[in-house]
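In the design runs reported in the main text, the only information available to the sequence generator was the tokenized backbone. The following block is the verbatim input for one such run; it is reproduced so that readers can re-run the procedure and compare outputs position by position.
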């Protein structure tokens, strides 16, 4: 909505009273293949699969041409030393190298969340020793 107001040449103010002259939109651009994705929650590039997405500014000119900002600094973390030896075990903190590993972790985490507390085995009768409370039963 703010983009429409600015394109109509109307004045746009913040709640503090400051005037907004331009809006910033952020996208992720892969440093390796220059692919641009608008989903800012991604970690890995959808085209090449590398973990080299950089946050850059996205602007649209008056002619309708899209321009993307430039971030020269690329973090080279993990390129100097080899990967650590895997330790194994249930609580291992292995480095995530591919997007496929994230999907496997989500499935393992959601396995315990399938318990339905409103199922028949969790009702009052199961905790009361199997006695049914009805019209003929005495209440204590």
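Verbatim output:
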């Amino acid at each position: 909505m703010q983009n429409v107001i600015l394109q109509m040449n109307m004045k746009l103010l913040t709640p503090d009273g400051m005037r907004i002259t331009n809006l910033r939109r952020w996208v992720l651009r892969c440093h390796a293949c220059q692919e641009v994705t608008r989903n800012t929650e991604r970690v890995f590039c959808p085209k090449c699969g590398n973990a080299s997405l950089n946050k850059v500014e996205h602007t649209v000119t008056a002619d309708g041409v899209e321009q993307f900002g430039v971030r020269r600094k690329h973090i080279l973390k993990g390129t100097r030393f080899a990967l650590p030896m895997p330790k194994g075990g249930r609580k291992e903190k292995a480095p995530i190298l591919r997007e496929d590993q994230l999907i496997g972790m989500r499935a393992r985490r959601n396995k315990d969340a399938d318990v339905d507390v409103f199922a028949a085995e969790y009702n009052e009768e199961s905790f009361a020793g199997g006695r049914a409370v009805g019209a003929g039963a005495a209440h204590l």
